[in-house]
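Journal club prep — side note

Before the paper discussion, L.F. wants everyone to see what a predicted structure for a comparable chain looks like in token form. Sequence:
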Amino acid sequence: MFESIAIGHAALTDGAIVGTLAECLLFYGRVHVIVDSGTFTTLARVCGPDTLLGFVEDGNLAVTYLENRTAVARRGNEERFGLVTFQAKGLDSQTYIPRMFQELTGKSGKGRRLASRLLARISTTQYHSSELTGVIDELIDPLYTDRVIPELLSAIVPGYIPPANLVFRVHRESEFFIVETNLHLDNVNAEYQRTHPQGKLTSDLLVTYLYGGSADLAFAANKASELACVKIESVIAEARLNAALAKSTYSANARSAFQKIVVPRARSVAEAVNDGYRSLEDVRRLLPKAAQFKTWLASQPDDADLIQEYVQQTTSLEWTSKLPTKSLRFILFNAAQVGLGAAIAGLPGAVAGVAIAAADSFLLDKLTVGWKPHQFIRGPFADFLGSQT
């Protein structure tokens, strides 16, 4: 549980990303974000250049920068489309990241230096035209598109109610594709433009949403990670990767429930950061203290009841730490005697006494010393949230 998670494009454009990122960093062993120029801007602004670089250099955050983008291109005036790749001038990582850091720091030299250090530690990737051929194959299943498009519309345009008999199908024509649909896009856009005044929802844009969601899922799968989903990705994931989504949803619910139980009456990490009570730099300072806690989380089975495991770990032998050392040694000594099954006398007894004393010291250390998850939760974690536990 909580081994690793990927955060894709859609999640990075969500307004609550700062809180989501904070919780993922505190709970997951590995956090990986995939960004393009636009979503890197969001990430750099919410973190700040120094904190973002700190997350990466500390090994808490991995970043992959997409050097190009994909788009659905119309062929002339025809209703035929194709998937293409493109790269806007000046938006490659080597050019854009230094420019963004100079803007955010307000200092040309410092921005270049921070960017140079970040560029040395992130990875880059790009889409290849050859990869796009198989994308259409994923979208030509009518059972898939007829089912997912109404749900996708509900996520993109919450106020719009799709017709019950909606048809949306993708048909291949050589290297191109056409869309067959009975969707009245004028009706959709009347609602869509309430929140996107300059936008226009088209059939090819819906295909772009389908492909973009699938691409983020594929990235997460390639990194053997859960995916931090927003509504659009959840719709696509539910249709394509029920098992992966179930794990991600279970983990998100587990994070929420765990925080409410173990630190009652306190904000969640996401709330503390989203509300401005804590910053991502505060999160970065907390992460070294969370290392053992994250290791414990990762050791739990995927279907573990996290709260139950925490309670068992916290209460198990906790009473021993409150006993005077002499009392505890007396208990251990008598337990060892019972284990021998008989009174010991003479030389054998002396040898056994030495062995018992050694065992006594070893067990005492094991029982009264050693890390338990409540040491982090009741200490640094509660302090971070401003709670008295």
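L.F.'s comment for the group: Residues 4-286 form one domain. Keep this in mind when we get to the figures.
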